[in-house]
Each structure stands twice: as structure tokens, then as C-alpha cells.
Backbone:
């Protein structure tokens, strides 16, 4: 237990900042219009203001009461995000099959121990399923393999 | 057209080979993800959204609906055999289902939950069939003011009822509406919050948001948590036959459960989780020997499972007749229809009767399929329980990536998924619910459009929302919920701690 509910403190703080940003950005860049004829800026300004107020309320209430401990699971988080980023970066350059193998290979670091052979087989199997379901089954024109050279 | 004509039309649509096929795919996938802990119907439907781009709208919605009610059947299997709820709505089935399983009565428990699910679903579908035309006849008179107030009510109800912190729920709705603003403004054509990116001109893709929030962040959180157990138990036919006493005890709870489930399903903001807990609580209260509950009372599994399935079917009433999603899964359904240019609302039934009645009739077919899948084929699902999560989550990630990529052949969309995966995981750590965010995201553009129109008609006068009686009713209920939430917030004590399981 912590003396304050830090989850609410962080959540409220982030939301309040987001709300203030949205309201100010909309007010500066988009026309507000009148209530009769609302411009594109009116609704976002209100929403930003509401979010800022609720965020501040959550923050203050979090400061006033104890809260549970929390900590992120860093390893699975980094591994999964790295796998997805690897896919984004490689799918247009190398094609679908290598991108999936890379995705599986990176995401498998979420767990210990790392089993290279299992990962390779799983990657190959999933890549074949992807080709069968999306390219053969649904007829989506995705390049299975590309040669960038 | 009379009801009979509509039913025949629906049957002719639902019985085409392709719709039968997609209905079957939907319910099988629904059973599959329902059985597996760690993947819920939300994640599954998010994963399947890209596939719907390649289908015709009726098949797409028939399949997604099949996944939705299929999970309600499958979820109870893990609850009963392993004491691990496959889905939140079936968590309550573990209270008495697992003790029954330990007493060697797992077969009876599985059979009776399946029968209860079928009865609940059937009553839910009947209510859907008879009430939808009535709701539509009222809703056709709605103007922009009524729509705005109704959406406001739906959003406030969904984000504050049954959550531990209403303030956090409502803040998520507002954030969702803000994210829904991104892209070209319908009236002025001005692009908002795109920060110069052409990829954001049409707004943030619903598929990418749903996959990031429900697919990716769920995978990250589940890798360490999900433990699959091994139920080394063979479920034989003979072990499934209930005693005369079981049957006698079950039929009243089934009827009560159906009533409770149908009510909470149709009410926006509540759904299967609340319905199943409520049904359990009521059975315990009306029971002659409440002490049997928790020790393997058959009423304790039948009533909540019936309620859960009934609510899954009646949840389609507000979705299909008003265009207001009662829960997040329904918001995804609306999103799937919009992908095909169909806007759910009162006109849906008259403009697309084939889709509406075809979907309703597919519910009957899907539920019959589930009955077959559950009773003779139960052994297969028991074995599905043993699939390790280590093999499952890379498959989920693969479907996320290829699915999103396949929509526009654009890697940018997958990048948006990564961003929302990160946001979703941070939200999970900070105890912020992703479901209200998605509801706000889907309804946001409609909310703004109707607000603008209502104020244009009233020349900027806000009283329009309370001067029209139906709208005033929605506003009054919204205000009551907000007042009640404020009281709870000040007292700072969650009233229904059981619901935190959601």
C-alpha cells in the first residue's frame, strides 16, 4: 500500500494535461462559431475543458487516499511492442512471411527461457496460416515475399 | 409486411450457404475464445473486424454476432472445470459449477448450463423479435435533440454503472469522443487534430483502436497471468444426465434468469456481467436453503448462465433499432456495419429488412449449432482448454498485424495499433477502463452532429433538450445517474465490489 493512490494521481494528471492541450489547441486553430451555428472548434473546446476538470478531480481525490502498489510487467511489454514495430518496419520491404517470423521471434522474448527452435517453427506455421487465410482464403493482395535487392 | 413475412424473409437470408457458413465460423470461434481464458469476445471480435471488410454486410454481422453469443456458451466450461472464468460474465458460474465438478457432477453442470444458455437465448431472441418493431415505431419520431440526449444517457450509463470509479469511466468516454474528432469535420470540411498527416484524414481507424486496446494490451497483461490447467477428466454422455431433482430445481431459475438477463441486456450500459451476478443473487435470496449455494447448487449455475445468454440477445434491441450500443461489443458491431455504409438506427429495419431479419433468424440457427457443439462435442472443448498461452499469443499478434494491414495495405495502420497498444497497457496499469473509451469513440461523431443540428433548429437554445418530453426523460435519467455517481465518488466507496471483476 502507498499513502496516496498513485494510479489516480498519474491518471488524473495525464487526463487533465490532455484536456488542457485539446481545449487550447482547438481554441487557437479552429473557429468556435456561435451556439446557433457551431464552428469546428466549439465541441473540442468543451470536451477538452470537461476532460481537464474530471482529470483534476481524479488527481486530487487520488492525493487524499491510500492506494495499492502497482508495477508494470516490463519484459512482456517491451517484447510485444518490439515485435509489432518489427512487423511495421519490415512488411512493406520484405513482405508478409519474413515480417511475421520477425514478429514472433521478438514477441517470444516475453517469456523465459527463449526457445529458438520452437519460435522458428511457430513463426513458420503462423506465416503459412496467414498466407492461407488472408491471401488464398480472403483474396487479400499482400505480397508474401519481396526481394529488396 | 407482417411478422410472418419478415420471418420467412429472414430465414431465406439466414439459410443461404454463405450465411450458414459464416454463422458456423462465428459460433465455433466464439466457443473457442470463450473456452480459452485470456482471450475474450472483445479481443476476438476486434481481431475479426478486418475480415468483415472482405464479406458482405449480412455475413459479416452474422459472424461477429456468432462470436459474441458463442463466447457466452464457451465461457462456462472453463469456469466449471477449472474454476477459471473464460469470460467475466461466466465468472459467477464457477461459484457453484466448480464445486459440482469436484463432486464428480461436471457433466451435469455442463449439460444444464448449455440447456440454460439455450433457453435464455431463445427467450431473448423472442423478446428481440417482438419488441424491436415497437421501439422502432417510437424512435422514428426522434429528432436530433432526442438522439443527442439518448446517446448521452447511453454513454453516461455505460461508463458509470457497475464501475468502481464513475469519474474515471466518464473521463474515458470524453477521451474517446475526442479521439473520434480526428479527421475531416463533416460540416466545414476542415481537418481537425490530424497534425498534417494525410493518413489521418478519414479519422483514426476503429479497427486499429479496438485491436490496440483490447488485443495488444490484453496479450501483454495476460502473458504472465494466464495459467492453463489440465482437466484430466473425461466427460461421458452418462455423466451428463441430470437427476429428476436437478431438472425440478432448474426450470424456475431458468425463467427468472431469462427475465433478468433480457432486462439488463436491453438496458444500455449494463449487460451480461451485471445480469449474471444479479440472477445469482436473486436465486440465493429466493432459495429455501441458501446455504447450499457455493456448495454446488444447480440453481447457482443455471440462473446466471441463462441470464447471461438472454442479455446477449436483447443487447441487440437498442443497437439495431436505435443505433445506440448497449455495450462495447455492440459498439464494434455498429462499427462493422458502418464500414459497409449501413448506419444502424430506426431506418435499418425498413431499409434493410433482409439484414435485420436475416440476423435475427441466424441467432436461432447459431444457438442450435451451439447446442450441438456443446453436448455431443464437449470432449473437444475440454481439450482446447489445454492449449498453452505460449502458442496462442503469437497467433493473436499475427492476426492483429495482418488483419489491420490487409484493410488498406498500409503499415501506418499497424503503427496506430502499436500506439493504442501502449496507451491501452498504460491505461490498464492506471486502472482506466478501455471499454467506455471505445463507446465514446464510436458515438462521438454522431453526438457532435446531433448536438449541432439540435442547436441549429433551436437557434442556440439549450432548453430544447428539456422542452421535448422524450428528450427531457433521457436528460432526467442521465442527471440522476450523474448525481448518484457523484455521491458515490464523494463517499469514495465502490458499492458493488463484485462488479470490479469486469
Residues:
Amino acid at each position: 500500500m502507498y499513502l496516496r493512490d498513485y494510479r489516480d494521481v498519474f491518471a488524473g494528471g495525464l487526463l487533465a494535461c490532455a484536456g488542457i492541450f485539446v481545449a487550447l489547441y482547438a481554441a487557437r486553430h479552429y473557429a468556435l462559431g456561435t451556439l446557433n451555428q457551431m464552428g469546428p472548434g466549439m465541441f473540442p473546446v468543451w470536451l477538452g475543458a470537461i476532460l481537464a476538470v474530471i482529470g483534476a478531480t481524479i488527481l486530487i481525490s487520488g492525493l487524499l487516499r491510500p492506494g495499492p502498489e502497482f508495477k508494470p510487467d516490463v519484459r512482456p511489454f517491451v517484447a510485444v511492442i518490439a515485435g509489432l514495430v518489427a512487423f511495421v518496419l519490415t512488411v512493406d520491404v520484405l513482405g508478409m512471411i519474413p515480417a511475421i517470423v520477425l514478429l514472433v521471434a521478438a514477441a517470444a522474448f516475453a517469456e523465459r527461457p527463449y526457445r529458438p527452435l520452437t519460435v522458428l517453427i511457430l513463426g513458420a506455421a503462423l506465416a503459412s496460416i496467414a498466407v492461407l487465410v488472408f491471401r488464398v482464403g480472403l483474396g487479400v493482395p499482400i505480397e508474401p515475399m519481396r526481394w529488396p535487392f | 409486411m407482417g411478422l410472418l413475412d419478415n420471418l420467412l424473409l429472414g430465414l431465406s437470408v439466414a439459410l443461404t450457404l454463405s450465411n450458414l457458413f459464416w454463422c458456423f465460423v462465428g459460433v465455433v470461434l466464439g466457443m473457442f475464445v470463450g473456452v480459452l481464458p485470456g482471450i475474450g469476445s472483445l479481443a476476438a471480435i476486434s481481431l475479426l473486424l478486418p475480415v468483415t471488410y472482405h464479406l458482405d454486410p449480412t455475413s459479416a454481422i452474422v459472424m461477429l454476432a456468432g462470436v459474441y453469443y458463442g463466447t457466452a456458451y464457451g465461457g462456462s466450461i472453463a469456469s466449471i472445470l477449472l474454476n477459471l472464468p473464460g469470460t467475466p460474465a461466466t465468472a459467477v458460474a464457477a461459484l457453484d459449477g466448480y464445486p459440482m465438478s469436484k463432486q464428480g457432477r461436471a457433466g451435469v453442470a455442463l449439460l444444464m448450463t448449455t440447456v440454460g444458455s439455450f433457453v435464455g437465448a431463445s427467450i431473448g431472441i423472442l423478446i428481440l423479435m417482438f419488441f424491436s418493431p415497437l421501439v422502432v415505431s417510437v424512435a422514428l419520431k426522434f429528432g436530433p435533440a432526442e438522439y443527442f440526449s439518448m446517446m448521452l444517457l447511453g454513454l453516461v450509463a455505460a461508463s458509470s454503472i457497475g464501475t468502481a470509479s464513475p469519474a474515471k469511466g466518464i473521463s474515458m468516454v470524453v477521451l474517446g469522443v475526442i479521439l473520434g474528432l480526428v479527421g475531416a469535420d463533416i460540416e466545414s470540411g476542415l481537418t481537425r487534430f490530424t497534425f498534417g498527416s494525410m493518413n489521418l484524414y478519414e479519422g483514426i481507424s476503429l479497427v486499429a483502436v479496438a485491436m490496440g486496446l483490447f488485443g495488444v494490451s490484453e496479450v501483454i497483461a495476460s502473458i504472465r497471468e494466464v495459467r492453463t490447467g489440465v482437466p484430466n477428466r473425461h466427460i461421458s454422455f452418462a455423466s451428463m444426465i441430470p437427476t429428476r431433482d436437478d431438472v425440478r430445481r432448474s426450470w424456475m431459475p431458468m425463467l427468472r434468469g431469462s427475465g433478468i438477463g433480457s432486462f439488463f441486456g436491453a438496458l444500455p450500459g449494463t449487460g451480461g456481467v451485471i445480469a449474471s451476478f444479479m440472477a445469482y443473487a436473486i436465486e440465493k435470496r429466493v432459495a429455501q436453503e441458501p446455504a447450499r449455494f457455493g456448495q454446488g447448487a444447480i440453481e447457482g449455475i443455471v440462473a446466471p448462465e441463462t441470464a447471461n445468454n438472454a442479455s446477449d440477445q436483447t443487447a441487440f434491441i437498442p443497437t439495431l433499432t436505435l443505433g445506440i450500443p448497449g455495450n462495447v461489443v455492440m459498439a464494434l458491431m455498429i462499427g462493422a456495419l458502418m464500414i459497409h455504409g449501413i448506419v444502424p438506427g430506426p431506418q435499418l429495419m425498413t431499409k434493410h429488412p433482409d439484414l435485420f431479419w436475416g440476423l435475427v433468424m441466424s441467432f436461432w440457427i447459431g444457438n442450435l449449432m451451439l447446442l450441438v457443439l456443446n453436448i455431443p462435442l464437449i470432449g473437444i472443448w475440454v481439450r482446447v482448454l489445454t492449449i498453452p498461452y505460449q502458442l496462442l499469443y503469437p497467433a493473436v499478434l499475427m492476426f492483429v498485424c495482418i488483419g489491420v494491414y490487409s484493410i488498406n495495405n498500409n503499415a501506418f495502420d499497424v503503427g496506430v495499433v502499436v500506439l493504442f497498444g501502449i496507451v491501452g497497457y498504460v491505461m490498464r496499469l492506471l486502472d482506466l477502463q478501455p471499454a467506455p473509451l471505445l463507446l465514446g469513440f464510436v458515438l462521438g461523431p454522431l453526438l457532435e452532429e446531433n448536438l449541432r443540428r439540435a442547436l441549429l433548429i433551436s437557434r442556440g437554445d439549450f432548453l430544447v433538450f428539456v422542452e421535448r418530453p422524450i428528450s427531457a426523460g433521457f436528460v432526467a435519467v442521465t442527471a440522476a445517474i450523474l448525481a448518484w455517481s457523484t455521491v458515490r465518488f464523494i463517499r469514495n466507496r465502490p458499492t458493488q465490489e463484485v462488479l470490479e471483476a469486469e
Q: What stands out?
A: The beta strands of chain B are 183-184, 191-192.
